[in-house]
Amino acid sequence: MLEIIDDFLVETALGYYCRYGDFYIDPKQPVRQAVVSHAHGDHAVPGSRQVYCTKATAKFMQYRFVRQVASIYHIQEFDASFDLNGVNITFIPAGHILGSAQILMVFKGIRYLYTGDYKLQEDATCEPIVYTKADVLITETTFADPNVIHPDPIEEIKKLGEQSSHIMLGCYALGKSQRLTHLLNTYCPEKKVFLHHSMLPLHRIYDELGFVKLNYEPYQRKALKEGKDKVYLVPPMTFNHYIRAKNVVRVFASGWKRLQFRNDLSLYISDHIDWADLLAYIEQVEPTEIWTVHGDGIHLREFYKDSMHVRNILKRI
């Protein structure tokens, strides 16, 4: 009988390390061999010597880290396996942002699936999630709480269509801003979307590699002083800086309640799974064990206490 290796992937100060293949997944600091699930800053850092990732992830990283030490990128297609020191690796769409991947690792017949960040909700701006079976599921647990329910993003974005004033919409520049642009284009077509300058290059990569046309314009101060039905997308720092902005409705798109306080309107649009989607995803994967990362797995352990072994990923100094 095949046996699961308890320390196949462990959390270290440098990131999640697989000593059997001598590589790190989503390292926190530069390493010799990095396997990167997606290009968000808490998963992708500059300076690693060899980087294995999807084409879109490489594009985003190369743009963001252009002034850093050059890495060698090994671009991998989805669903095409490659070998890294005896570990067979496959990137599988995660549905989080463009190019985001679940990382399936097969070693000595056991399938270990690292999710990275992922979502089940429909998002036309990125590859939809694909399900695969695994013996060990290594899942993020950002919102792994039965009390967390993400509402329908279409109904949420329609709230903005009901506003007659201009809107300052805070959001993350990569992934979230492109999704919001498409949702506004589709469900609030009367709204004209303006972008903060930091978002423009990332939108252009979506224009090059993405799946839908995004309609937007660079921000112009004069434009927001005239007319109505305009939405200005800004990154968190800009949103927080203009906390006393006048004559605009202040909104921040996030699944976190703490980011909705002091705003004029709540907008619960998340690019992570909620509790119900987490359970639905686990049902599709059919793991024997679950190892949790990026959050607290206490609710999962309680839910599966009579049917499945659930634990936090092991840590090594």
Automatic annotation (TrEMBL):
SUPFAM superfamilies: Metallo-hydrolase/oxidoreductase (SSF56281). Residues 30-154 form the Metallo-beta-lactamase domain. One of its GO terms (molecular function) is exonuclease activity. It comes from Sphingobacterium faecale. This is Exonuclease. InterPro entries: MBL (IPR050698), Metallo-B-lactamas (IPR001279), RibonucZ/Hydroxyglut_hydro (IPR036866). The keyword Hydrolase applies. It comes from the Bacteria.
